Amino acid sequence: MKTTIRYTRQGVRVLVNLVIVVVILASLAFILPSLFGYSRYVITGGSMSGTFERGSLAFEKIVPVADLRVGDIITYRPPAKFGIDGLVTHRIVSINAGKGGDLFRTKGDANATQDPWQFQLQQGTQPRVTYTVPYVGYAFLALGDRHIRMLLIGIPAGIIAILSLVELVGALRSPAGKRTTPIAPAGSGADAREPITA
Fold first, then answer.
1. How far is residue 176 from each of residues 4, 7, 44, 172, measured CA to CA in Å?
2. Which of 51, 72, 79, 122 has the lowest tally of Cβ within 10 angstroms?
3. What is the distance, to the nearest Å, from the Cα of residue 106 to the centroid of all Cα atoms in its chain?
4. Tally of CB atoms within 10 A around 169
């Protein structure tokens, strides 16, 4: 029983430490990029396959639009008239002078043709992909789901509670945990009391 209790305590400690490490790493992954001026985007499509795959996490640095060059990969929202709902991360293939500013055209590295639209970047700055980390984006997508977040928190908490309960029950049942105090027989010792009779 003592061996079981010892292993249970070690298991609880390891699990608690593991949960703490995961929480710290997740917090750093959320906080550090923004502290250094980076934004994060999860790659959900396959149009850049070969350069980075679906599920990659793209880290992008905010740069002046004037610093963009052909070959840069950017994340932007296509013109509304093309019906693309959401952001696109593609490579710049041409920059041409246009009325009111430069006209950009992009292409996905895995696509056979260029994107059918040209667009202007209205803001003075633009996120440009600096590096990507494969597969990590899946974790961010999963954490965006409320039910998965609850499972990730609830399962370790439940395991810790069960292990703690097992340890407590083991300690209560252990003979070593029981203390017996000898009771002096009536009438002996300095603290003996005579029964009271009416």
1. 14, 17, 58, 9
2. 122
3. 31
4. 11
Classify domain 37-135 by CATH architecture. Ribbon (2.10)
Whole-Å CA distances, 36 to 24, 41, 66, 133, 138: 18, 15, 21, 17, 23
Cα–Cα dist 60/58, whole Å = 6
Sheet holding 57-64, edge to edge: 38-42, 57-64, 125-133, 73-76, 88-98, 101-107
Q: What is the pLDDT along the chain (198 residues), one digit of tens a residue?
A: 556 656 666 776 777 777 778 767 766 776 777 788 888 889 999 999 999 999 999 999 999 999 999 999 999 999 999 998 889 999 999 999 888 889 999 999 999 999 999 999 989 999 999 999 998 888 777 777 778 777 777 777 777 778 778 778 877 876 654 555 555 555 555 454 555 544
* Domain ranges for the chain: 2-24+145-174, 37-135
Which amino acid appears at position 45 of this protein? Answer: G
Residue closest to 93 by CA, chosen among 66, 74, 80: 74
**Contact, 130 vs 39, CB < 8 A?**
no
Q: What amino acid is encoded at 23 in this protein? A: V
